[in-house]
Sequence to fold (575 residues):
Amino acid sequence: MNSFSVKQLFTFEKTPLNLLMAFITIGLLAAFAAGAVAYLIHGHHAYNVTRQHPWGLLISMYVFFVVSSTGLCIISSIGHVFGIPEFQQIGKRAIAGAIITISSGFAVIGLEIGHPMTMVIYNVLTPGLTSAIWWMGTLYGLYLAFICMEFFFLAIKENHKLSKFFGIGGLLVGLAAHSNLGAVFGFLISRPSANGVFYPVYFILSAMITGCYLVFLMYGFRYKMNFPEKVTVMLTKLSKILGMLLAVLIFFEIWKILTALYGDMPERAATILHTIKHPNFWFGEVILGMLIPFTIILLSNAKAIKATIYASITGMIGIFFMRYDLVHDTLIYPMTMLKRSEYQLPPTFLEYFPSPAEFAVGFGGIGLCLFLYYIADKVFNLDESHSH
Amino acid sequence: MARYGMALNYKNCINCRACETACKEENGVLLGRDNYRIWVGVKEAEGEFPNISIMSQVYHPSQCQHCDNAPCQQVCPTNATYYDENHVVRVNPTKCILCTYCINACPYDARYVDNRTVTVDKCNFCSDTRLANGETTTACQATCPTKVRVFGDLDDPKSEISQLLATKEYRRVKEHLGTEPKLFYIL
Ligand code: SF4
Ligand code: SF4
Ligand code: SF4
Fold:
């Protein structure tokens, strides 16, 4: 832990990049606060969710944050649990990031779930053991406890044995929690386009990809693109891992789409066809999220670290679209296709666009992350310590 | 106890919507776009004039199917959704956390958010209004001018609904999902 005072906490080098980050952070925090107030006053009426489209941007953002957290936890475990030496240095920074992103996720979901306190009580008193949400929530609670302990023994009271113990625990519980989050969608028999094994597996894969992107971004910012030799070696290896993961993801996606379209199964084929034609998918998910980073890694033989860091920005935007589409595309096909009143047209694919309050809370969560990361970076030494 | 279900002679439906109104009145369902426990789906006639298929025009009264194997119940994290002693699928507002997972999981669009309790609500076969007062019919059934609806105990072989289902051909909605819905559409 570093010694610090409140004054030190809020002094930083006034470079243009730092100032820009400070403005973005403050703006997003203000948005979060404003969105939270709107929600507290108007409840779900502040959001554009409806009976037919009951989940929206906030569920997407929750998934976005917990995917980030699980991803950072998995990537950090390469060094710290599996003992690959070059990756040991990621440990503290990545686990701090994992704690921060999941906490932001919980803050966002707290403003989406109607009765969080009731949840705390009845999750324990009358647990719904057949509910993927119950498992996901419970396991994520446990996961947070594990990674906090892991961080404690990594950064505050250094103890390699205990940090490894909690690291393994956090990794296993995190994997279980995260695949359960995939199952929240995969278990929906009412939604043929989501139902099946794809999401639980895809969630773990895309978490690992998200973890790589975030490590690139954190290191790019930490070293202002001037990397010491040791970091360059690690990032080059990470870039190779990322390239391979992206190749697997592209392969998965192709087969998911082909199986969904093949045979023109009712509901499923039409839904997938509709969604892949949307720019959210082909531009957001495919070009930004997969192809730009993949091409850079492939063409530079994983050596273009700086370019990969910029590509991690488009990558994270792509990851956002993957999370957004996950929710929207699952719900897009109406559950009843008959019209209910004379002045209505027969239902077609549902429309949804987030309300200002949803944007404020959802993207405000990113402000929480940036702010907490800034504090963590000041308070703790997130670089590798020598006694490690 | 009983196992309640409903048979619908839906071909007799004249789309008068008296049932929708009776339900709102009986159960105090609020006004508003998303607030309805029951509805009548309309499928318009197919074909171009003069070859319009009259038979293809259908009025399809619908509501919660009270599935025997209800996805909404399986996904509920706090068991707020439960089967009561009459196999009616109910929501306990004290336990509902408004995660709206059940709304996503229901294949029939039967659920919505009640703005007073701020929890999920849906048809409960008038369980805490009419049935609780000892009545044996639901509001939608009692009001229907063409006697589309027959509500009753599926476990009692002598009940009107059991007799009807024993003698008539029927179909259920999205049966392939394995939800075991308890609304029976008499053909
Ligand atoms: S129709 Fe929907 S709400 Fe009713 S029991 Fe079946 S799944 Fe649940
Ligand atoms: S919204 Fe309420 S009834 Fe529905 S799944 Fe969540 S807790 Fe259960
Ligand atoms: S009251 Fe009867 S006839 Fe009228 S809409 Fe309802 S089910 Fe149809």
In short: The first strand of chain B starts at residue 4 and ends at 8. Residues 12 and 185 of chain B are 11 Å apart (CA to CA). Chain B touches chain A through 42 residues (CB under 8 Å).
